[in-house]
């Protein structure tokens, strides 16, 4: 069990990137969802013992890992957002080098690296220098290095950035499998990255935890507050001035809008079944003035 308790991070210069966040994580996948600048990377670096919190506690199985980071590090696989690999090394050489740095024996690491290359589908490319890899292939090397020591806790920061749709799906499924018996914490600003795999979603913005729940619990919040309407282009502009609009499609008949609001935004609005994108936008997007769109979702 990994626990973040009242964690705050204030950077030099005064930026409060994480503001008294508390999260407890057991086995399973927690999707940390928030816009750019929400504080996701800062929180993950703190959870991964890379950065010290300004205040608050991080406990792993009850042990204070701010004071004793090694208690977590030997069980941790971490994939930072800016994961960089040496361009002249092959995938196999790079992973062997990291395994040696982690103190793994050459024999056990050889077998493990073979397994991992298979898992991330890089066996065939493993003898080529990393400099010639695509963004997606490098991400897969990144996840392989995070899994080297068969970690109990896996922290991956925006792992799908730069992946094509097929790679995204493969990556999500792989992490979901790993989450069966491990703590997996994954950050993203893309709702579809986590809605099909995370049973537990934390929405963060401005350094604060806004909501946490299962997809069903989050969807429940938005029930009765999502509306579809078809309007003229001029009316669409007016609606966008006053409401949170989660989708807008121009069609031959007019503009089809999806609006988040407690009350119907217009007499012709039809209630719609919410999805997680609606919930997310309702939480993180400031309501345009006049502020009547967000109340119920906060
Ligand atoms: N080392 C630092 N020094 C000062 N400010 C920082 C530092 N790192 C991050 N910040 C600021 O803290 C806030 C949160 O940044 P953070 O990277 O944690 O957010 P994020 O949700 O991961 O966003 P992104 O997806 O853009 O990385 C931002 O305003 C960022 O500019």
From TrEMBL:
Xref: PROSITE patterns: ABC_TRANSPORTER_1, ABC_TRANSPORTER_2
Entry protein name: ABC transporter ATP-binding protein
GO molecular function: ATP binding
Family annotation (InterPro entries): AAA+_ATPase, ABC_transporter-like_ATP-bd, ABC_transporter-like_CS, P-loop_NTPase
SMART domains, A to Z: AAA (SM00382)
Coiled coil: none
Gene3D superfamilies: P-loop containing nucleotide triphosphate hydrolases
Ranges where the ABC transporter domain occurs: 2-231
A Pfam family of this chain: ABC_tran
Keywords in alphabetical order: ATP-binding, Nucleotide-binding, Transport
Family in the record: Belongs to the ABC transporter superfamily.
PANTHER family membership: ABC TRANSPORTER, ATP-BINDING PROTEIN
Highest taxon above the source species: Bacteria
């Amino acid at each position: 069990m990994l626990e973040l308790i009242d964690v705050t991070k204030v950077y030099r210069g005064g930026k409060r990137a994480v503001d008294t966040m508390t999260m407890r994580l057991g086995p399973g996948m927690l999707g940390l969802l928030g816009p750019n600048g929400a504080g996701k990377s800062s929180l993950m670096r703190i959870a991964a013992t890379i950065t010290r919190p300004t205040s608050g506690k991080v406990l792993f199985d009850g042990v204070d890992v701010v004071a004793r980071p090694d208690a977590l590090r030997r069980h941790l696989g971490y994939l930072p957002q800016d994961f960089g690999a040496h361009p002249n090394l092959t995938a196999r050489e790079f992973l062997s080098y990291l395994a040696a740095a982690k103190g793994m024996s050459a024999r056990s690491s050889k077998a493990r690296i073979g397994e991992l290359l298979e898992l991330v589908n890089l066996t065939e490319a493993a003898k080529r220098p990393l400099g010639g890899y695509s963004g997606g292939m490098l991400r897969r090397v990144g996840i392989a290095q995070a899994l080297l020591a068969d970690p109990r806790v896996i922290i991956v920061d925006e792992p799908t950035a730069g992946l094509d749709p097929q790679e995204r799906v493969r990556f999500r499924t792989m992490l979901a499998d790993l989450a069966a018996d491990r703590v997996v914490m994954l950050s993203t600003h893309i709702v579809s990255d986590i809605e099909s795999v995370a049973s537990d979603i934390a929405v963060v913005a401005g350094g604060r935890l806004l909501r946490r729940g299962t997809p069903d619990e989050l969807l429940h919040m938005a029930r009765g507050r999502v509306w579809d309407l078809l309007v003229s282009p001029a009316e669409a502009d007016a609606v966008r001035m006053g409401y949170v609009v989660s989708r807008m499609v121009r069609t031959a008949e007019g503009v089809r809008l999806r609006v988040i609001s407690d009350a119907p935004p217009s007499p012709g609005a039809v209630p719609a079944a919410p999805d997680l994108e609606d919930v997310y936008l309702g939480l993180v997007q400031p309501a345009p003035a006049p502020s009547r769109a967000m109340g119920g979702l906060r």
